[in-house]
Amino acid sequence: MFVVAIAGVLAMIAVPAYQGYVERSRMAGVVAQIRWIEDLVAAFELENRVLPGDLSAVGADRMRDTWGNPYQYLRISGPNPPKKGELRKDKNLVPINSDFDLYSMGPDGDSKMPLTAKASRDDIIRAADGAFVGVAEDY
User: Residue 8: is its pLDDT beyond 90?
Assistant: First the structure.
């Protein structure tokens, strides 16, 4: 019985640690994919002198994050810029990018425009025009 109790305690410690590891590896995969899509967008812009209107122009429209959700993209600079209300904003309500937004809606598959919204805190975002890619809560 003592051995079973020890095994139970070890399982209580190991399972959450393993789940945390799995979640961190999923997020790292999404960060890598966002960087890859960012490179595709940059190559498109170099070739065409304009940002793509959507991810299908760079062949990334069918890509899914590690939780099975499509990546979200919004061209900010260029023809027909979006309205201020359509831009993702930080805690100071300042747009997080000036060229384009690219992000994953994170594990919950939900997102709102301001990063301070509860639904957006777990999003994996590209911010500061590509200087930051990571969890929205950390930006």
Answer: no
Cα dist from 4 to 11, 15, 18, 80, whole Å: 10, 16, 20, 65
pLDDT value for 43: 98
Q: Where are the beta strands (DSSP E) in 41-116?
A: 72-75, 100-104
| Cα-Cα-Cα-Cα dihedral sign, residues 49, 104, 72, 117 | negative
CA distances (Å), 11 to each of 6, 19, 52, 55, in order? Answer: 9, 12, 49, 43
- How many contiguous H segments (helices) and E segments (strands) does the chain have? 1, 4
* In the chain, domain spans: 2-138
CATH of 2-138, one of 3.40.50.300, 3.30.70.100, 3.30.700.10, 3.50.50.60: 3.30.700.10
Cα(109)–Cα(130) distance, rounded to whole angstroms? 22
Quick one: pLDDT at residue 7? 82
- pLDDT per residue as tens digits for the range 90-120: 989 899 999 999 999 999 999 998 899 999 9
